[in-house]
Amino acid sequence: MHPAGLAAAGTPRQRKWPSKRRIPVSQPGMADPHQLFDDTSSAQSRGYGAQRAPSGLGYPAASASPQATFLADPVSNMAMAYGSSLAAQGKELVDKNIDRFIPVTKLKYYFAVDTMYVGKKLGLLFFPYLHQDWEVQYQQDTPVAPRFDVNAPDLYIPAMAFITYVLVAGLALGTQDRFSPDLLGLQASSALAWLTLEVLAILLSLYLVTVNTDLTTIDLVAFLGYKYVGMIGGVLMGLLFGKIGYYVVLGWCCVSIFVFMIRTLRLKILAEAAAEGVPVRGARNQLRMYLTMAVAAAQPLLMYWLTFHLVR
Hints:
The protein is an all-alpha fold. The protein is built from 11 helices and no strands.
């Protein structure tokens, strides 16, 4: 055998291991050779850090705002004071003009009610026969608030009754498959139109008869708006019990509102005639009595006219 072959056979063959190549550590500012895109976040963070550096704690340095600079200027302070005075004068002017056409301060009086007053007033509207004292109470020539006197007129009950009447009318039309927004709007607008015509007719009649009374336009709206309470009762009873329930309840409410209006307006119209020394059987006093009766008699007619078509 050949010596070289013996040597090759006798000596164990060494295994060759792959050599390890050192990957250089990327230095700051040097790109990673395995990175596909450049990392710009570090540069931005370094940029932000460079901007925050002057503050000392890593926060941006405080600087004076434009608002503070503006307020510190004495000229701007004078301008602001002048603007505030102009705004106050404008508000006062608007309040005066609004109060001239819409007496906001007087309207507050008519909404000064509470739960007890509303309950007593509703009872008075349905059962005026049980009430004895109809005089309105005064305090230093000024009528007391409605919550202290059940005889005082208010606008809370008429306003809520009108809204409820429109809703009940919509309910009645819906049960008869006749509901539509146009028809409901026509119902509400017709009720308002009749109320407006009533007020204008009464004011014209008082002017022609030359009645000196403390009965104001808002008082008339309040007294004439009480009829919506009886209209609501009649329509609801008509929905529950049919025509019989409608006529029974509406008839009771019509008589009640007639008595209520007679006893209320009598003190507002006829009492002024007595204070003026007008003879009880005089011609002018007779006209005032007829006017009171006409206003009271118109309420049941309108109550029926505005509700009879809602009950089938």
